[in-house]
Amino acid sequence: MESPNSLPTLTTSPSTAGFSSSSSHETQCSPESPPTWKPGTTVDKPTAAHNQDLEILKTELLFTIPLLMNHPKCYWIWDHRVWALEQTIKRLPAKMARAIWEEELALDSKMLLRDCRNFHAWGYRQKLTERLESSELLGSSMAQAEFSYTTEKINTDLSNFSAWHRRATLIPRILIERAATSEDRKNLFNQELELVHNALNVGPEDQSLWYYHQFLMSNVISSDPNKSFVPSLLSEDANAIVDEVLEFIQDLAEDYTDIKWIYEALLEYIPYKSKIQGRALLSEEKVELAGLIGKLEGNKARILDSIRLAKEKGALLRTGPELEVPGYGCLDHHLEGDTFLHSWEVVAEIISDPICKDMLIDLGLGVRHRNVQVILDILIFLIRPKMSLANDGLYRETRHFTAWVKPRTTEKYYLETIIRDVTGQTSVPIGDVVLSTPDTAIGCETCEELFTPLNPSTYMGLNGVEIVLNSSASHAELRKLETRLNLITNSTRKLGGVYVYANASGVDGDARMMFDGSSMVICNGGVLAQSDQYSLRPVDVITATIDIEEVRSFRANCSRNVQGAEQPDIPRVECDLKLARHADEIYLSDELHKTHSQALRLLDPMEEMHMAEAVYLWQYLSRTNSPGYFLALSGGLDSATVALFVYGMAKVVLKSIQNGETVTLEDLRRVTGEPDFMPTTAQEIMSRVLHTCYMGTEHSSDETRLRARHLAETIGCIHSEIKIDNAVAAHEEIIHQALDFKPKFSVHGGSRAENLAKQNIQARNRMIVAYELAALSTTSRNTKRAGASMLVLSSANVDEALRGYLTKYDCSSADISPLGSVSKNDAKDFLRWVQKTWEMPLVSSFIEATPSAELLPLSAGVQSDESEGEMGLTYAELSIFGIMRNVHRLGPWSCYLRLLSEWKERPGFGPREIAARVLRFYRFYAMNRHKATVLTPSIHLSSYNPDDNRHDLRPFLYVVAWPWQAAKIEAHVKELEEKIAAKKMAE
User: Fold this and answer.
1) 397 located within any domain
2) Which of 699, 701, 843, 986 is at a distance of 20 to 30 A from 601, taking alpha carbons?
3) pLDDT category, 287, cuts 50, 70, 90?
């Protein structure tokens, strides 16, 4: 029988002097298989033939080196080498054995050169050094040498947990060996703190750095010499260290708002001062800690806040947006097990919170389905999965989830352990099910289900469900809200019942789209409560008190009841919580009042654009913690529109602050770096968060330069005027050196290719200069955020992207593109709205100006970007083609047929002219579709947005002539022209 403590060795090969040696075919095939490395042959007794033993042991060690190189994380190989090394101590003289151990340490160093974070190699190294330090190998301390080795490895790769961990274990030994004084210990502590702070400035997201930082800081609050290497630290010194560290981490928090380790460190270190001073936490420290918890826990904190607000308003039933626990915009993170795990962890903490007691709560998360959870006190009643998934436009739900396809059917869902520990439940029903309380019945449908022909709320309503909850993540799009709201109101107007619609609001992690709120409570087709369509509030709660008898009386008609009687039953789960209150309680309450119908609130499309852009720009700015935006202001309509979007953002931020929304003020102070900033005008905000620059050339006019300057002065932003001719000339000289060729404008005799190249050099230089200015703007102005780079804004519109009328990597390339899904016509309408609503007469000069990029010599005459000669199509025509191509899904042939009827009365547009316009558009579209692959991310606001990332998935390598379609159209044009001619002859 083998001893469980015997050392591992190879199981095959002849034995020499008590060893198992030579190579094994079995090992070469499967070195990571435990049976290959069985505990087995042991050494009978040491031999006198040291040289023979040395040769055998070296052969054994050499044999495993190739295996180790191929399988560097195989425990069995490392353990076998340990066994072989131990034999050297038993069989060889100490000096000879030590040489082998030192060679092994050198091999380990080579392994760590291959992978400096291989924790197997680090653990092995610790075993080697412990043995090399032992008296058996004539050793002495290697602590200082190993400490230097960790420094070398950390300098190579900061993200090296094993190196930091090894360093932490070596420091106490080094101090003892040095007989370090208190001053020596303090100096070493400061050196290590500086080292890890420098590392954190480079990689604040690295958990291994925070581990070492935590190790250092644990020494500050401990006076136990066994737990601290600075035990004699004076309290004032400890306080100073904590202050310095907190200031450092708070600076990191300003620059990196989405790294949880920063907030966790602050949560841990803020109480240190009270521990050092032996006092309780101060009230301001408690407030700061509470704020940090909110930042750290994100969605959980917002969900609990919404529950608290709802409860304060007297609500007994609460619902929230779709997938509110993890967030809707996780994209492929929805496929990760961690997302499911952490979602359930959040649910466990929410339902454990006392605020949830005696309240029915509807939460949204994924549980390997798309689900809605209904929770009471500390019981989960049911899981209702989504039955219709959104899979068009911006949505790809079937990539991440599977719809429930078993109507009126339930199964058993076994709850996660973390939930079982909280509720004591093992399983709950999952499926197409409703919840019955003693006084009503509640059903759920989720977002997309509302838009389907046979939506669940219809058959649930016919089955007696009186309250329907809809958790939604419906994205913003101009003029879309009315359609969505009509669907909801018409559903209950026809069927009766209460419809509680909760939509997400603002920007999620998937920042190409945003959600436009407008959550509602509707009863029998009448709107009882409606939230704002766009808001900067992190949590927005609406409530309504409803007389459920109004639903029952509304449904008391024969036709509805006959259809209801025909419906198959839906499975029901019973719940003991009563949601109804007696009329006496309502009458006596100061908080509760029966809610009455109100008018549906819909924004004017241009006000909707203003609010959408304002919220998007502010949330993007504050979440990236950037100090502001940079915009190349050309004096044209597009860049002026973007500048006014930012000005609109400042107006919305100011209004939010004036309404007492403290989160907005805190974010503004963080973004600007001014802790006491209290703006009184939008211009004060603009003077900090927008830097515009007019980048002129010899081809630019005073007209555009002055327009840009006057607009910047009006909105109060920082403004610069520069000439980029030197940069353009330098690039042209580089081209000349490479090609021995100088391009010329066409007006000077150059070809079309030369003319285009000279324009593109100017355009691309503007992008490069924009990024440089954005990077250095705060530094040059010595602001509180000096060193932080501003975000660059693009001013390309959707029509230009559709037609491809832009240069790759010119000012259409930036960090984000606020105008990227807005048409030229809508941009003009927005400026007209601004002129009237904000009383800005200056705006009319941009509307009336002839649009031009001013890239050609002034001697070429007035250039118009809207002329057919320059672009081939008008912006109005591009909008029409964009809608037909994307929204109506028409190819060239169908588009041509549609326009024959729609443009029939258009002067000068016969079949041939219409055909020419159609083929011209599709030719330009096909030629330039490749440009869509690098479009700057923009907020989605139009249904014909050509965003190549997700909304408009098309090829970008086309046969640009569309030969089949062109031939078919040409044949039809000829046939139609012959019929027209025959008709005229007959007349």
Assistant:
1) yes
2) 843
3) low
